[in-house]
TrEMBL record:
Similarity comment: Belongs to the steroid 5-alpha reductase family. Polyprenal reductase subfamily.
Name assigned to this protein: Polyprenal reductase
Keyword annotations from UniProtKB, A to Z: Endoplasmic reticulum, Lipid metabolism, Membrane, NADP, Oxidoreductase, Transmembrane, Transmembrane helix
Taxonomy of the source species: Eukaryota, Metazoa, Chordata, Craniata, Vertebrata
Reported function: Plays a key role in early steps of protein N-linked glycosylation by being involved in the conversion of polyprenol into dolichol. Acts as a polyprenal reductase that mediates the reduction of polyprenal into dolichal in a NADP-dependent mechanism. Dolichols are required for the synthesis of dolichol-linked monosaccharides and the oligosaccharide precursor used for N-glycosylation. Also able to convert testosterone (T) into 5-alpha-dihydrotestosterone (DHT).
Gene: PORED
Domain of life: Eukaryota
Enzyme class: oxidoreductase
Cellular compartment(s): Endoplasmic reticulum membrane
Length: 247
């Protein structure tokens, strides 16, 4: 069932919260990573003293990923109203491991000195750059719009008292729905782009993650757009599927 999407975010909140806890302890208390975690990161390609990568960047991105998962988990329980549609078991299994791998990907970008995080300048706050602020603003902006879009979708199946009355599809209006059929997917892409900005725009590994998110969300948006157009004769003709005015 589609409502099992909540399982993905439960795993993400727990696992990425666990990784964030270890990273925070290492950054602020000097506690080394556990041997098993350090060994796993080395297998995934983490290098010692990565070229100019800032520990603050990875820390902020991991915080963003955890907050994103926490908000999506809240939405799954209290905002979204899922239909009776189902997902393939392969898609479900992939979703269970996706955020585990994504969190490890972020952590593998942390510059290491043995099992310790290597902080350039020995002061984390001194690493603050303009792209950290821009990335944070983009993350907040994208997250707010994604939340608004999920509220709009959820309210289509509720009465004014907030009680679910049906699971049918209706045409959503408001916010980014005025431009694209699936603004929640567009916001997801923007959230990952905000993390790429937080990495300073030069992190190839994370741009590969963004590329995956782009194609997966674009495909889902295209299929949703096709469904809306086939189901509703009065569907707004000016709306695009995923990218405003383009696609």
């Amino acid at each position: 069932p589609c409502r099992y999407f909540s399982h993905f975010y439960i795993i993400s909140v727990l696992w990425n919260g666990f990784l964030l806890w270890h990273l925070t302890r290492s950054l602020f208390l000097g506690v080394p990573f556990p041997n098993w975690l350090h060994g796993l990161l080395r297998i995934l390609g983490a290098a010692q003293f990565q070229g100019g990568e800032l520990a603050l960047s990875a820390f902020l991105v991991l915080v963003f990923l955890w907050l994103h998962s926490l908000r999506r988990l809240f939405e799954c329980f209290y905002v979204s109203v899922f239909s009776n549609a189902v997902i393939h078991v392969v898609q479900y299994c992939f979703g269970l491991v996706y955020y585990v791998l994504t969190g490890l990907t972020v952590l593998s970008q942390v510059p290491m000195d043995g099992r310790h995080v290597y902080v350039i300048g020995k002061n984390l706050l001194m690493q603050a750059r303009w792209f950290h602020i821009l990335g944070m603003l983009m993350f907040i902006w994208s997250s707010v719009h994604q939340y608004k879009c999920h509220v709009i979708l959820g309210n289509l199946r509720k009465n004014k008292a907030g009680v679910v009355i049906h699971c049918n599809h209706r045409i959503p209006f408001g916010d980014w729905f005025e431009y694209v059929s699936s603004p929640n997917y567009l916001a997801e892409l923007m959230i990952y782009i905000s993390m790429a900005v937080t990495f300073g725009l030069h992190n190839l590994t994370w741009w590969l993650v963004v590329t995956y998110v782009f194609f997966s969300q674009a495909l889902s948006a295209f299929l949703s757009h096709k469904f809306y157009k086939s189901k509703f004769v009065s569907y707004p003709k000016h709306r695009k599927a995923f990218l405003p005015f383009l696609f």
